[in-house]
Amino acid sequence: MKQILVATHNKGKLAEFASLLEPLGVAVISAEALALPEPEETATSFAGNARLKAIAAAKAANMPALADDSGISVAALENGPGIFSARYAAGDYASAFARIIAAAARKDEWRARFTCALCLAQPDGSTATYIGQADGMIAAPAGDGGFGYDPIFVPRGHTKTYAELGPVKDQISHRARAFAQIAAALG
Question: Which of 76, 82, 119, 129 fits 103 for a cystine, CB–CB 3.0-4.6 Å?
Answer without folding.
Answer: 76
